[in-house]
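Sharing a chain and its predicted structure for anyone who wants a worked example. Both blocks are below, sequence first, tokens second.
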Amino acid sequence: MHVFIELWTMNAEWARLDRSRREALVASLGASTGAIVTAEGIEALGWGFSDATVDHPEGRQCFAVWRAPTSSALQRLAQAIVDGGWYRYADQINVRGELQAPEAVIGRLLGQNAAGEA
């Protein structure tokens, strides 16, 4: 199983849009990403607002967590977000990867040298 985690804060470009233009952008993105989500078997695990009281907060306002059977499905979702112009309005970072057992991740980390190479 693969996951895609988005972390974002809306920027000044977003603030300059009136509500109707914001709604139009969100509707357009929803239509294009929704078709990919359905076709690729992607599931939105949830969206939310970041808890700023957590230890070592990242600082972005919102998050979304998606899962899919393949990394390529999530790549298509990410490309639809790019194509829809979202990053003009959101300062965002993304994480995508395959879910693994904690032991596998720790084992790989333990085998890395100082440069992060296995």
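Comments welcome. The two ends are 23 Å apart (CA to CA).
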